[in-house]
Amino acid sequence: MNKPPLLHKFPVFLKIITFGMVVLTSVILVFIFGTLLAFLIFGSDTMKNLALIATSTDPDIIALAKYFQIVGQFAIFLVPTVFFAFLDGRNIGKYLKINARPELRTIVFSVLAIIAVIPIINFIADLNQQMVLPAFLKDVETWMRESEDAATKMETIFLNTSTISGLLVNVFMMALIPAIGEEFLFRGVLQKLFHQWSKNIHVAVILSAFIFSAIHMQFYGFVPRFFLGIFLGYSFVWSGTLWVPIAIHFINNFIAVLFSYLSAQGVVGNFEDTIGTGDSALPAVIISTVLSTGFIYLIYHFAKKNKPVNAELIK
User: Fold this and answer.
1) More reliable by pLDDT, 185 or 65
2) Secondary structure string (H, E, C) spanning 197-241
3) H or E segment at 255?
């Protein structure tokens, strides 16, 4: 007879607290291990070079920064979610809904939807960038701007590559690992726990999307990322498999990485970031709304046709 999961009888709020502790423990242990491994890979100057990551353009220091970016993703997203899935469900694949094969047409419509929605995302991001806080929050706004600029600068440094090997590293670091790890955490675990707590799938989707956007600490991109999180959450609910939001998340990030590379090579312009803004905003947003709504409806329609669309899909 199989033993029940360790957290089987825990109340939901205690599961949420436990998950937070698991994430914190994972961050500490994985970063300790990652730092020790970094000394073997990058040499004895590792700690000195870590202090230069935010300001240096030296290739060796950028490589070190990318290494710790990957270590951080494993520490925060992958390791704790897999471990918690075992504690709360024992069968990791079943708990995270990665043992269910997605339909090909669902994946195709999901990919088309995330491509079609780009002008809307850019339009919302442009509005979000114009956010101004009240005068008494000037210090907070200054901190937010500085944090945003620092994050943008680091992202630009990461994306600045002219080689295929550099592109592949960026795809792995900025598209594949975040797509899997973040979906494991936000949809696979948090959305499930929030649903068990609230008994309302819509509350669960919105809460997990809010935290998904907030944790990136990029305040002037909060709103479009929040809406992306909602789309990812419902795609999980409708399809019943985590592979669908993983695919959407991957394609969204992959497009940004690929176009950045192609733009640096002079193959394309930066239209991927600007379509839906400026003088072309209105027609682009209207077309984007029609197309993305249609694709999202098809995802919902075929999911409903194949199985009842309800909250039981993520239990």
Assistant:
1) 185
2) HHCCHHHHHHHHHHHHHHCCCCHHHHHHHHHHHHHHHHHHHHHCC
3) helix 243-264
The total domain count for the chain is 2
**95-152 pLDDT, tens digit each:** 999 998 888 888 899 889 989 988 888 888 887 777 776 777 677 767 677 777 777 7
Distance CA 133, CA 149 (A): 17
Taking the C-alpha atoms of residue 62 and residue 159, their distance in angstroms, rounded to an integer, is: 11
Domain boundary among 60, 94, 128: 94
Residues whose CB falls within 8 Å of the CB of residue 170, separated by 6 or more in sequence, listed in order: 158, 159, 161, 257, 261
pLDDT band at 315 (very low <50, low <70, confident <90, very high): very low
Closest CA relative to residue 117, chosen from 251, 307, 289, 262? 289
SS3 298: helix
Residues 25 and 158 in one domain: no
